[in-house]
Amino acid sequence: MRLALALVAAAPLPACARGEASNASALSAFLDSLRVESRWPAGVHVDWQTGLPDGKTETFEGRHTHCSAFVASAAKQLGVYILRPPEHGQMLLANAQFEWLRDRGAADGWVRLADTFEAQGAANAGRLVVATFENPDPQAPGHIAIVRPSDRDQTSLEADGASIIMAGEQNYNATTVRHGFANHPTAWDDNQIRYYAHDLRAGSIPAVAG
Questions:
Q1: Residue 203 three-state SS
Q2: What is the pTM of this model?
Q3: What is residue 57's predicted lDDT score, i.e. its pLDDT?
Q4: Cα dihedral sign for 148, 163, 139, 197?
Q5: Contact 78, 23 (CB under 8 A)
Q6: Which domains does the chain have, with CATH numbers?
Q7: Structural contact between residues 69 and 81, judged by C-beta atoms closer than 8 angstroms
Q8: Is the pLDDT of residue 129 over 70?
Q9: pLDDT by residue (tens digit) across 137-159?
């Protein structure tokens, strides 16, 4: 029996599992390379693709954040379309992305996921996954983030949701859905966050220099 268990433990992972682990590792490295904590800063106008301030003056009131621009930039670099400039301006883009994913995302390869657990599993399999919330006030901003691969356990996921990378009032390379969406209390508390996944083509994750 001990020998049998040892042989099982030593057995190599199936090719699909090895591929998923490799994709997840590459995706994590790519997300880290975006340097979200030093780019897409709140309160200034930025180039949506680079996250760098572009010197333009904001023409709308309030302190503007760039969650949706960050997601759009990351998705574009991964070869995945999500609603983005110039098809929609940066203002209130997160709400528009929520509606686009709901109404048109499937035609572009996006699949609705059941919950934060399935979202974490999809990210861990190397898929591009977003968590998105539409503000019930159409003139107020929603929120969107990317679910990043993570080895957090079931208890942690139940308490705080999937791991995410996001821009916002404060930018985080790694936080949780519950914390990242805290400026929208009903999002987490009332289960108003929706999750979508998109497969990534082989070789579509940009290589990151070690």
A1: coil
A2: 0.90
A3: 78
A4: positive
A5: no
A6: 18-198 (3.90.1720.10)
A7: no
A8: yes
A9: 989 999 999 999 999 999 999 99
3-state secondary structure 60-97: CCCCCCCHHHHHHHHHHHCCCCCCCCCCCCCCCHHHHH
Read off the tokens for 125. Answer: 């399999």
The pair of structure tokens assigned to 86 is 């110039």
Most distant pair of Cα atoms in the chain: their distance: 71
Nearest to 182 by CA among 170, 194, 174, 173: 170
Question: If we measure between CA atoms, which residue out of 195, 208, 35, 193 comes closest to residue 123?
Answer: 195
* Strand order across the 163-166 sheet: 111-113, 194-198, 128-133, 143-147, 163-166, 172-176
Which residue from 99, 98, 76 is spatially nearest to 86, judged by alpha carbons?
Answer: 76
Q: How far is CA 152 from the centre of its chain?
A: 16
- d(C-alpha 14, C-alpha 124), whole Å: 16
DSSP, collapsed to helix, strand or coil, labels residue 194 as strand
Six token digits for residue 96: 């528009």
Question: Among residues of the chain, what percentage have pLDDT more than 70?
Answer: 87
Angle at which helices 93-103 and 67-77 pack, to 10 degrees? Answer: 50
Q: Which pLDDT score is estimated for 13? A: 42
Tens of pLDDT, residues 97-126:
999 999 999 999 999 999 999 999 999 999
